[in-house]
Write a structure and sequence with these properties.
Elements (H helix, E strand, L loop, with lengths): L1 H37 L6 H40 L2 H9 L5 E3 L2 E2 H7 L7 H7 L5 E2 L2 E12 L12 E7 L6 E6 L1 E7 L5 H30 L3 E13 L4 E12 L4 E4 L1
């Protein structure tokens, strides 16, 4: 009996050991699988550098493509405007309303004739304008070119208007007068509308009277050696039964001439 019992015990122990071994193998197998998912293979320094370079190249390519698209749109927009807003188009638009009355008995045609344009053609328009307005490459309109301050990127004065000072009067009446630094010139008209035609003819009629003023102002600015920007402007007002007045104090700061840029 004892031997049989011993055999049963050994067989039982053998089965238990086998189950434990199988369980251990399963646990080990699962553990290995889990580790493989959590810890992927590491990239080398070269692989990381290549990946970074590829991403940077892709971003640069996208930026260049976007820039090219913007530049193309700007070219097309400019070409579209100049094609659809030519001097002939503007004059045809005016001609379509020649008989329309601006006021009783005074038509668009009468208005154009009063400004020196009796025929709505480019040739007639050129003939109606002062010679300074007409050049081989087109028709020009008088424009003002103003100076602005341009310093370092972080300079808060960037873009501010520039001024210069001239002395007026003599003796006790001598005083300083501050003027905006600007010159007078011409710019070619690229975009035409009926309103531009009107402005052009109006400027042509007044040009003879203003020409001397333009020349004098240009010479004055050219001779200027000191330029300034308006640093601060303060106002003080007094209002009462007997006194009503306002005083203005402007503080100007001189700037280097190399920081004065002329912008249309």
């Amino acid at each position: 009996m004892t031997r049989k019992n011993n055999n049963r015990t050994e067989n039982k122990n053998t089965r238990n050991n086998a189950r434990k071994a199988d369980s251990t193998q399963q646990e080990l197998f699962v553990h290995v699988e889990t580790d493989a998912r959590i810890e992927p293979a590491k990239q080398t320094a070269t692989q990381l550098a290549n990946e970074k370079a590829e991403k940077a190249a892709k971003r640069e390519q996208e930026r260049e493509a976007a820039k090219a698209a913007r530049e193309r749109e700007q070219r097309l927009a400019k070409a579209f405007d100049e094609t659809c807003m030519s001097v002939n188009d503007a004059l045809r638009s005016v001609a379509a309303h020649t008989k329309d009355e601006l006021e009783e008995g005074f038509t668009v045609g009468d208005y154009m004739a009063a400004k020196g344009l009796k025929k709505l053609t480019v040739k007639a328009l050129r003939e109606a304008l002062p010679s300074d307005f007409v050049r081989e490459d087109g028709i020009y309109l008088p424009t003002t070119q103003a100076a602005v301050y341009e310093g370092a990127n972080e300079d808060e004065r960037n873009g501010k208007a520039v001024y210069y000072c001239v002395a007026k009067g003599k003796g006790d009446n001598k005083r300083k007068v501050w003027k905006k630094a600007q010159t007078y010139g011409f710019s070619r008209i690229a975009l035409w509308t009926p309103a531009v035609v009107r402005r052009l003819l109006t400027a042509g009629m007044a040009y003879a009277d203003k020409q001397a003023h333009y020349a004098k102002r240009n010479a004055e600015v050219k001779a200027t050696k000191h330029f300034y920007v308006l640093n601060e402007r303060t106002e003080k007002a007094v209002s009462g039964k007997k006194v009503n007045q306002k005083s203005v104090v402007e503080n100007y700061v001189e700037v280097a001439t190399e920081n004065v840029k002329w912008a249309c």
